[in-house]
Amino acid sequence: MITMSEQGWTFAEIWETAAAQLPDAPFAKQGGRTVSWSEANRRAEGVATFLLDRGAQNQDKVAQYLYNCPEFLETFFACFKASLVPVNTNYRYAADELVYLWDNADAVAVVFHGAFTDTIEEIRDRVPKVRTWLWVDDGTGSCPDWAVPYEDAARAEGVPVIDRVTRSGDDLYMLYTGGTTGMPKGVEWRQDDLVVVLGNGLGLSVPEEHDPDFVAGALTQPGPVGMPACPLMHGTGALTSFGTLNSAGCVVCLDSRHFDPAELLDTID
């Protein structure tokens, strides 16, 4: 049985339903790696459990300092499960911009690729609100002693997260935009509103009034395949991926960390 939100739509309830009904369908792909919906659900549950065990509270912010990868999508899932707020981080930012962003967002945790370890080393003492660092292995070095391997968090177990939190349609998705004047601005969306809006053009079209039985009846087969050509840390990449996942689809992440049109076309082919 899937436990729905108290009030309004949330991404977690939709994605958990997809995982329960289509466990073997693909959730994400990158290169030769495929993560099924059941695997993504289990790993996101572990990360959510870990963050709660480390003291994260309702609607605390979790920054994602990552290139495109399945872990990026799993972290979204984990945050939504635990009633936490994912915060995108532009990996092109310099040290001062990162400090500003994470301080302004009140981030309590950062999930980061190993490639960014040296940059974080330079600023870690300037972001005292961040209590937890999750290191995603990308082959660039070993996990620093001040961080925890993401894979360890993904294996965490405990009381089901749904029994530890109170989800609501008022739970937030937060997007920092660099396209405004001055420093980045944090834009907050209620998940209930965003799920409905995305359904008007991307993914699962849901009724405005929350209906606990609707999703189970709608997600009976794997959804479309989506491939963001842009970074997931941009709104375009994240929101189109949410639409794909809301339909029990699969998000394909490109391997290259720079736009490579040949790779893009080869992957489509």
Task: Provide the descriptors you would attach to this structure in a database record.
Rossmann fold, 11 strands, 269 residues, alpha/beta, four-stranded mixed sheet, globular, five-stranded parallel sheet
Taking all Cα atoms into account, the compactness measure Rg is: 17 Å
| Termini separation | 39 Å
Shape: globular
The name CATH uses for the topology is Rossmann fold
Q: What is the spatial order of strands in the main beta sheet?
A: 4-3-5-6-7
Query: What is the average per-residue confidence, as pLDDT, rounded to a whole number?
Result: 93
How many separate domains make up the residues?
A: 1
Question: Could you state the order of secondary-structure elements as H and E?
Answer: HEEHEHEHEHEEHEEHHEHEH
| Top-tier CATH class | Alpha Beta
In total, the number of strands is 11
**Portion in strands:** 15-25%
Helix content: 25-40%
Looking at the overall shape, the CATH architecture is 3-Layer(aba) Sandwich
Structural class: alpha/beta
Task: Report the biggest beta sheet as strand number plus sense, adding barrel if it closes.
Answer: 5 strands, parallel
CATH superfamily: ANL, N-terminal domain
Q: State the helix count.
A: 10
Low-confidence stretches: 1-5
Explain how this protein is built.
By secondary structure, the protein is α/β, with parallel strands linked by helices. The protein has a single domain (11-268), classed as Rossmann fold (3-Layer(aba) Sandwich), CATH 3.40.50. Helix content is 36%, strand content 19%. A hairpin with a 7-residue loop joins strand 8 (172-177) and strand 9. Residues 1-5 have low confidence and may be disordered.
